[in-house]
Fold this sequence. Notes:
Layout: H1 10-27, H2 38-44, E1 47-52, E2 55-61, H3 62-65
Antiparallel strand pairs: 1-2
GO molecular function: ATP binding
Protein name: Iron(III) transport system ATP-binding protein/spermidine/putrescine transport system ATP-binding protein
Keywords: ATP-binding, Nucleotide-binding, Transport
Amino acid sequence: MDEPLSHLDPDSRTQLQLELKELQKQTGVTMLLVTHNMSEAAILGHRVSFLRRGSIEKTVNIKAFV
């Protein structure tokens, strides 16, 4: 998903974050989320990857990053 929550109002954003997290927990499906919002990444993610010129430069556990 590419910036799926970026244009939502704060209440809708929070609600959808909770729903996405619950969906991932229930299904165990891997989700790829592209965001510039690091707090959103911390809420929804387990790992964060940094891209440079279209290639993954580094991947770390989100807890080690924030």
